[in-house]
Every structure is written in C-alpha cells, then in structure tokens.
Here is the input.
Amino acid sequence: MCGIGASVPFDRNFLSKTILVNASRGPDSSGLVELDFCGLAVNRLAISGIDSGDQPLWNTERSLALVFNGAIYNSEELQEKFQSPSITGNDGEIVFELYRRYGLAFADYLEGIFAIVIADIERETLIVANDQFGVKPLYWVHSNESVKLASTLDSLSSNELSHAERFPPGFVWTNKGDWRRIKCQVEPVGLDAFPEIVASQIPNEVEWGCFLSGGVDSSLITALAGRQSSRVRTFTCGTPDGSDLLAAREVSEILGTEHYERIITVDELPDIVSKVIRATSSFERFTVMGGVGTYLVSELAQTHGMRVVLSGEGADELFGGYDEFQDIPHAFLNAQLEAAVLDLGSTECLRLDRCSMAHSLEARVPFLSQRLVPTILNLDPQLKIEKQGSLTTRKSALRSLATRFLPSNIAYREKVEFTVGAGVTGALTALAEQRINKKTVHKLQEDFPTFPIRDSLTAWFFQEWWENIGAQLDGDWPRMVERGLFRQSPNQFNLCRWS
Here is the structure.
C-alpha cells in the first residue's frame, strides 16, 4: 500500500529521491520527517483510514513515528484485545501499542504483509521489520556510519547499489545493532479456516477484486470472496489462443463475477518486456515472462478502479504444485517446499509486488497467511502429492477443499504454468529468436560468464536489463546478482525455521 524510505542519519537527498521514484507505489500523499538522528519518507496508497490515516503515523505522545508498506489483517482484533481504539483508522497504528507492550517482539503478533520502520525518538533508535516471506519489499545499504532503507532499488544511487542487499525477511533490526527473528504468536489454523483468511483480507474502504486464471488457486479465492460480497470483480489476461482466457470465463460464469479481460497482442510484447524489466529490476526469465501477464492484468484492474486484488501466489510452493516437486521423496518434500516458500520474496512475490504496484495496486496473498503457513508446511506430504498407481495428483489437499466451493472439473483442473496459460511463453520465445541470433547469444555468454544466459530468450532479457539498468551500475555488479538483487537467489537468513 506504500513506498517507504529511511536513513540514519537524516539524508534529505536520498529521502526526497525515494518519494520521487516511488510515486506509483503511493499516489495519494507523501511525507518526509526530519529527526535529530534519522529521517523517514513515505508515499501512501490509501486503503485504510482513507481520510485521516496519512503517514508518517505518530503516537499520541509524538515520541514514535512510523512508516510502513503493506497491510495488517488482524489490526481490529488487536485493538479490541488491548482496548486500544484507532485514532486514524490506519491499520498500521496498532504497531505503536504492540511496540509499547512487547518492544522488539512487536512483529510477533502481526498477521499481514509488511515492511515497517519505527523511529523511537527518546531512545534515538530506528527499528525495522519485514514479514516472514518478504512479500513486501525492503532493500538496504548499511555501514558503521550510515543506513539507508527503501522499498525499491530505484531509490539508491549506482554506487550504493554495489553494496545493497535485501533486508532479511522474518527479522527485526535496530540501528543499535540488535537482531531478532520474528517468532509468530498468531494462532495457527487448519486449511478448513481458509475461507476466514480470505474474508479477513478483503478491504472495507476501497474497491477490490481478484486475479483469475481459471486454475484452482485463483478460482478458490474468487469463490470464497464471493461468499463475502454480492459483487466480485475478476481480471485475467492472455493471448487470443491462451487457455487462461477460456478457463477464467468458465469460472466467472459459474461464480457470477463481473469479469474483465486484457487481450495480449504479439506486437506489444517488446514494450511490455521493457516495462517489466524496469519495474522488477530483474532479467530472470520466469520473473520477466510471468511479469508480462501480471503487469497487464494489474493495469486492467487499476483502470477499473481497483485498489486491492487477491492473488493466489504461494499455493504451488506450499502444496507442491510444480512439476519439479512431483518426484521428490515424501520424506524430503516438506523441507523443499519450505525452502521455496521462504524464498518467495525474491521470486513470485517480487514479480507480483513490482508489477502490481507499478499501477498503484496492492496485491494480497491469502495463501501466505501467518496463521495458515505453519500448518501447511507440516501437513503430511502424501496429502499434498497423492500417488495412486500411475496417477499423480499435485496439491491434493487443496483440491479436496476446493470441491466444497467449486465444481470438481475446476478443482481438479490440471496445473498450467501462468505464462503458458496466458499464451505468453511461445510468443516470447518466437520473438526472442527473431531478435537475438546464436552469435549474439555466444557473445553475451563470453562477455558475461557469471550470468545465466542460456538461449535467445534469456539473452534478450539480459540485454534489455543491461541497457536499462546494468550498464549504469558501479562496483562489483556480478556480486549484486549473487546477492539476489536482480534474480532469485537463496537468502542467507532463509535457513531459519518456524518456531
């Protein structure tokens, strides 16, 4: 719901730049706070507390200032529990009460997607927290003398990018050198509670809808959203021959949604690829290919007045939906799935956040609820990938749940990769082969041996990235790639486990 920045000490040039480059992440208002020891900046996309919830937020005593990006789904529950009614209506306001009660353990009690920065003025302490999966992005450059944090890499100079890293998901840090892993205290629930999770993520004050591909993940979310509202808007995109368009139309007709489509033409793909690479700062093939559809369907939703959409990211990683999970022995499956879930902030959620927020649209991911994930990660692997003779059913437990709300043919529809279903894979591959010959591929491989340039498609994406981003960088840019700034890469902190 926002773009944020912070610096220790106060750095006006940096914070002003974060406001400028993050305009699409928060078009409704912006704010900059100068304090003796630090500074905060924010661009706000108003979703809760529309009229009175502008950021930065301040506590009553004005001893704490806060900027945050994301959504706190259990804010009303916490306000009631602690008898701490909201003054601004902004769901982030509850953080002040949690910090007062629990100090650096405040994030343990949050259910949501968030990147939070608190300035404790009396203690001259900056406190930073990122949700367990990095759904909401946060990057930083830090040394003994200074710290800079921002929602996007665009906020940093080319020299600073040489030292930038992702802020580790699932941790709280302070400028005094404190580190604390978030230990989730939100009560876990079973898969049967998924309808309640979807309901809790539907906003009360703004227009919302659902991304719908026609697969089980998005169809289930849409069906459950329809139990909460008589009017559900759904959005899909694809080439004229893409299977997602037909599948989504079928689901929309069954569920009675108000359905919108964006038809992708081959001629516009080069321009969209360029926009996706700039939005994601990535040339990683799946990020860019998937980003084409996400970028266009986000634009479609925003055009129709949406501020929030519900999306199905995380289901394949939790339940074993991808082909590569199918042959993993059950004894090792959950560990592999957990690793994939913990890296979502640099893979699927990176694509989703950057491409949706490029259109001032917040994407929420019900499958990644802190209440649900621990239960699913510990679910019997045989309930995720079920094998009966020669027949294998991936995401079996989820499909079983879906049959309660959807026809069986949709609940058990075969998994189709998003880029394939949207009809993008073949079109992009053909375009790449027209644009990049084998000689150029070999030349790029020789010039950039540390980069994964394997074919015309990856060469096209890399070449586009290099011309728009890479060539402007100073310092050791291959190391920046290894640190996961521009493609998926395991984070050093992803070795942690749920407590």
Confidence is low (pLDDT under 50) at residues 487-499. The chain has three domains: 2-181, 191-276+284-425, 426-490. The longest strand covers residues 64-72.
